[in-house]
């Protein structure tokens, strides 16, 4: 990092004090003492559950040597447990309204149950891309996987530094998450190996591939002051116009991923995420901090998710037969995919602009599509017709919550099972020791009797 970048970094206190003057979630709801109690309870809850789940993961490690299918199912089971930890954590410490939208491509795939929960019927195997607003984005996307009953089969691409967090990092490694150095020479080998595994994992006794939701944030980082500057520099370097509400995406890793999964995945799902109340010119990470979200009682009033689905067959991934053979053909293919991704991100930026203006993804103004397309003519040739959501489009309004409170017991089951087994083993060992002691006593008694018989010259029987 050069000195110019250092001078551009905004002090955290500047943003915090500015935001606190009128926080979108209102005044602080919990005083200092209650915040302290909430912090302690939060820490005990999260780290106790994490240790229990990590212990369960370790118990399943020997399965890898015996049967990999059972090993992957075991790890998926523990991943389901961690999803429940996040869901209960959100429900208890940071309850918020979730609004889930979708365009025509996901029509019929978003449903609301009689008790108000969200249920989805998205593809069981897909690549999921999203803009990156705040560090909590992945929690809400994991909750979406829970609504689709594939929360044990989500895979996330993360910064490599997270792998070294004690317990948490090792647990995520066992989950099969992909950790990136942001150095392509290192990342390519790691990604190729992991994606090859995901192309081959099957359930025990079956030949079909396991479900898989592979989550990527093409922007590479969350929206922040430094991220905004980085996007502006990339725009200047690449000749692109910078975006207003999103960061410019990078295409290399996503293109590599889609090519590797081309034969086993049918769709890419795109999610546009927005948090209610982030003031213009500010950033969600500075408004909804860990403290305000979980301890001050000021989580986002609502989080909105807008979904689109793209068939893999519609995405330009490979060189065309008409391209020249050689490096130029690959360069043309990469450019076509880059244009496709940029079109999607410009549309995403327009959706975000709609949200920032009206507080909703639903359309309000006539002619918006025409104006957008006039200002941002498509660069790709995939034929996709962008449209804003209609005002009468059904929106699922719900909350992050489990299907039933007793689901939490699943997290404790492995520990209870191990405790029961250990108790039985201890009881059995004590029983064996008691029998061995009794046998030894009888032998000692027999030897004593034999000694007395020899001493007095008469039998004791």
TrEMBL record:
Keyword terms, alphabetized: Acyltransferase, Membrane, Transferase, Transmembrane, Transmembrane helix
Source species of the chain: Pseudovirgaria hyperparasitica
GO CC, alphabetical: endoplasmic reticulum
GO biological process: phosphatidylinositol acyl-chain remodeling
Pfam families: Acyltransf_C, Acyltransferase
Domain Phospholipid/glycerol acyltransferase: start-end pairs: 126-255
UniProt xrefs under InterPro entries: Acyltransf_C, Plipid/glycerol_acylTrfase
Protein name: Acyltransferase-domain-containing protein
Annotated family: Belongs to the 1-acyl-sn-glycerol-3-phosphate acyltransferase family.
GO terms for MF: acyltransferase activity
């Amino acid at each position: 990092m050069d000195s110019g970048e250092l001078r551009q970094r905004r002090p955290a206190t500047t943003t915090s004090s500015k935001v606190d003057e009128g926080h979108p979630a209102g005044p602080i709801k919990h005083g200092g003492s209650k915040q302290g109690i909430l912090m302690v309870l939060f820490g005990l809850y999260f780290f106790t559950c994490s240790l229990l789940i990590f212990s369960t993961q370790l118990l399943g490690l020997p399965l890898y040597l015996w049967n990999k299918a059972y090993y992957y199912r075991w790890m998926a089971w523990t991943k389901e447990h961690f999803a429940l930890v996040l869901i209960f954590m959100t429900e208890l410490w940071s309850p918020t309204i979730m609004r889930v939208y979708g365009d025509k491509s996901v029509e019929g795939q978003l449903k609301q149950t009689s008790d108000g929960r969200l249920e989805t019927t998205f593809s069981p195997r897909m690549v999921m891309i999203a803009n990156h607003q705040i560090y909590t984005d992945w929690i809400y996307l994991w909750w979406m996987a829970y609504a689709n009953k594939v929360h044990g089969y989500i895979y996330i691409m993360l910064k490599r530094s997270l792998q070294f967090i004690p317990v948490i990092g090792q647990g995520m490694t066992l989950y099969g998450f992909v950790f990136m150095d942001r150095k392509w020479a290192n990342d390519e080998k790691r990604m190729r190996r992991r994606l090859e595994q995901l192309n081959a994992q099957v359930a025990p006794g079956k030949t079909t591939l396991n479900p898989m939701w592979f989550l990527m944030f093409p922007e590479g980082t969350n929206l922040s002051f430094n991220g905004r500057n980085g996007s502006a520099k990339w725009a200047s370097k690449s000749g692109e116009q910078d975006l207003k509400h999103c960061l410019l995406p990078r295409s290399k890793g996503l293109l590599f991923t889609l090519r590797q999964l081309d034969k086993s995945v049918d769709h890419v799902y795109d999610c546009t995420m927005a948090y209610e109340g982030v003031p213009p010119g500010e950033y969600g990470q500075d408004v909804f901090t860990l403290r305000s979200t979980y301890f001050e009682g000021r989580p986002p009033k609502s989080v909105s998710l807008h979904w689109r689905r793209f068939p893999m067959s519609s995405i330009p991934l490979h060189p065309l037969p008409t391209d020249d053979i050689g490096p130029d053909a690959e360069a043309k293919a990469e450019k076509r995919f880059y244009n496709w991704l940029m079109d999607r991100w410009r549309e995403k930026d327009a959706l975000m602009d709609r949200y920032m203006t009206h507080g909703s993804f639903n359309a309000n103004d006539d002619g918006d599509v025409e104006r957008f397309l006039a200002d941002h003519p498509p660069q790709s040739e995939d034929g996709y017709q962008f449209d804003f959501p209609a005002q009468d489009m059904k929106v699922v309004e719900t909350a992050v919550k489990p299907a039933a409170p007793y689901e939490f017991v699943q997290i404790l089951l492995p520990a209870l099972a191990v405790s029961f087994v250990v108790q039985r083993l201890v009881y059995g060992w004590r029983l064996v020791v008691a029998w061995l002691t009794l046998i030894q006593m009888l032998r000692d008694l027999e030897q004593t009797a034999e000694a007395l018989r020899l001493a007095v010259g008469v039998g004791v029987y």
